[in-house]
Amino acid sequence: MIVLLPFQARITRSLYTTLRNAFIELGYTASMSGLTNTSQYEAAQQAITTAKGFCVELFNEGSPQAKGLKKVPRVVIKVERILPGNIGFAAVAGYTENNSNGYDKQLYQNIMSSLFLNISYISNTAAQDRLMGSVIHQVIGSRKFIPYLYTYQNLSTPIVPNPNEAFLMEQVNYYDIGESPEGLMERIYEYKIQDVLTEYPETTSIAKIEEIITHPFFGDLPLVDSDQIIHPTE
């Protein structure tokens, strides 16, 4: 049976929330706390624009239609490709005892995967460009572990991060689009997330076998008369 593992959504949503929290802390993005509809959020963003001169919009993965009107300044996360990783497992199954008086046989994917994604930020003033670049370098930099903020079972509600669960982001490329005729500047940082599991382990339940008990033979061997012995020469 095929069971999908939403590894890509878990990574990008954790990254999106981490970046968004940084902009909220600096006062350049409205918090959704206490807001109940889009109109309230837009009003909160407008209040930031009035106070600071601009506010930052963040976009995670999604279709262009789902992202609505494109405003600047904005930060966009986009997955580019998934390639084989460097870490692999031997084709040996592991066994763990279950609650059904048996064992679960687990067979993991034989090689992990590496995910490549772009973080781009678009601006039309130097102040916007400097702010977004500074936040991205502060939060991620060239190489940093980003905590998982969601579980596979719940990709909607952030959790308190577990210090033992994180993914490593490492910058592998940079380029910029330059100024467009509209006066927009776009900078793009490419990151590699090395060696992540992309598949659930294949699990098969195995029943326990009954214990084999050997009973030693006690007592004398039956007596055999000499005339009952058959010799090979006869």
Give a structural overview.
By secondary structure, the protein is of the alpha+beta class. The chain has a single domain, classed as STM4215-like (2-Layer Sandwich), CATH 3.30.2000. Helix content is 21%, strand content 33%. The protein is built from three helices and nine strands; from the N terminus they run H-H-E-E-E-E-E-H-E-E-E-E. The protein has helices spanning 7-26, 38-52, 126-139; strands at residues 57-59, 74-88, 94-97, 102-107, 111-123, 143-147, 166-179, 185-196, 202-207. It is elongated.
- Could you please say which CATH topology applies here? STM4215-like
Radius of gyration: 31 Å
- What share of the residues does DSSP label as strand, in percent? 25-35%
Structural class: alpha+beta
The overall strand count is: 9
- Uncertain ranges: none
- Give the count of helical stretches: 3
| Order of H and E elements | HHEEEEEHEEEE
CATH architecture: 2-Layer Sandwich
